[in-house]
Amino acid sequence: MKKLGLLLVACFAFATLSVGQNSMVKNLERNVPGQGKVTIHQDARIAALIGTEAHVGTDEEKVIKSSGYRIQVYAGNNTRQAKNEAYSVASRIKERFPELTVYTSFNPPRWLCRAGDFRSIEEADAMMRQLRATGVFREVSIVKDQINIPL
C-alpha cells in the first residue's frame, strides 16, 4: 500500500514538472470568479533560466535571454562617485552610438557599465574596436554575459 502511495506521488510530481513552470504560473494567476486572485511578481531572469520568454524594459519588449558577450566600458568601486561615472560613461556611449544598448548596474562590490548584446565574440570585437577608436573610453574589454535577444 505504501509503495502504491509513493508511486502516485512520484507520478504527480513528474506530471507537474513536465507541464513546466510557465504554465504553472499562468494557472495560478488565472482569474476565477468568486475566488481570490493570485498575482506572482518574479524577476525576468527566472523565466529565462527555464527557457521561456521574458518581458524586459518599460515598453514590454519581448526578448529571449541567452549566453553571449557584452563590452565592458567601465568598472568602478562602490562609491557615489563611481556610480556617477558609470552613468556618465553610459550617456557618452549613447551619444556616439545611439543604436547600442547600454547597461549600467551595481554588481557588488562595483558599478559596471556594459554595452551591446552580441551573440559572437567577433561581433563584440568589431564594436570594441569602434569604441576604442573614439579615444574617449579608457577601459574597454569583452566580457561573457547573459544577453537579450529581441523577438
TrEMBL record:
Question: Which positions make up the signal peptide?
Answer: 1-15
Question: One Pfam family for this entry, by name?
Answer: SPOR
MF terms in GO: peptidoglycan binding
* Classification via InterPro entries: SPOR-like_dom
SPOR domain mapped to chain residues: 63-145
Q: Which UniProt keywords apply?
A: Signal
Q: What is this protein called?
A: Sporulation domain-containing protein
User: Where is the organism placed in the taxonomic lineage, from the top?
Assistant: Bacteria, Pseudomonadati, Bacteroidota, Bacteroidia, Bacteroidales
